[in-house]
Design goal:
Blueprint (H helix, E strand, L loop, with lengths): L2 H11 L2 H13 L4 H21 L5 H17 L9 E7 L7 H12 L2 E5 L6 H10 L4 E5 L7 H12 L5 E5 L5 H6 L4 E2 L3 H12 L2
Length: 205
């Protein structure tokens, strides 16, 4: 088993210390950061996402895999990593829920995206400014309350008014595909694992 296979297994199982050790070992052996991310971390998170989709993994397993992934990525923070795209993510104005948003951010990061997390209660102006500042390919918005879903519409309109071609993904418990179509969002993700495949497809749309 190669060191990247071992790293992949460590992330899947949520073994943070082992993930950190194996990442350091891979760097010491001269493997470049991109290879470590693609063949180790991203490959692991794809498996985690699939297990989550098929109910083999639940939120606790997803969170410990995320923790191991972040331990590995932290060691690569000073290395040159070729991100597949940049995502600005946040929970919309008036909404303070962040568990789902955090899971989506982790899955996107593990898949090779550069993630700019704006946190919770994010206004349309903040989304637009961050999309400009980071030349974002995607804006990902979450809402857990029906009363805050209107903020998603406001942000889509604001991005369009600003002349940005940034694609928009939305998700959250009350959000639906039909609502995404209604407000002219580019994609809808019902869960964290789906956000990765939707995000990747929008990069090439």
């Amino acid at each position: 088993m190669t060191i990247l296979d071992q790293l992949k297994d460590a992330v899947i199982s949520g073994n943070r210390d082992q993930a950190r050790t194996l990442t350091q070992q891979a760097l010491s052996e001269g493997l470049d950061a991109k290879m470590i991310v693609v063949d180790g971390i991203s490959a692991a998170m794809e498996v985690v996402g699939e297990k989550f989709r098929t109910n083999e993994f639940f939120v606790p397993e997803l969170l410990i895999a995320q923790r191991a992934m972040k331990a590995s990525l932290k060691l690569l923070s000073g290395e040159a990593v070729d991100y597949i795209g940049t995502v600005v993510i946040g929970t919309v104005k008036g909404d303070l829920h962040d568990i789902g948003k955090n899971l989506v951010a982790a899955m996107l990061e593990g898949a090779g995206f550069k993630v700019v997390d704006l946190g919770v209660d994010v206004s349309s102006e903040q989304f637009v400014q961050a999309a400009k500042d980071h030349s974002a390919h995607l804006v990902a918005m979450s809402a857990l309350l029906t009363t805050t879903m209107g903020s998603m519409r406001d942000t889509v309109s604001a991005l369009s008014a600003a002349g940005l071609s940034t694609k928009v993904i939305i998700g959250g418990a009350p959000v639906t595909q039909s609502y995404a179509e209604e407000i002219k969002a580019d994609g809808y993700a019902p869960d964290a694992a789906s956000a990765v495949s939707v995000g990747k497809s929008l990069l090439h749309a």
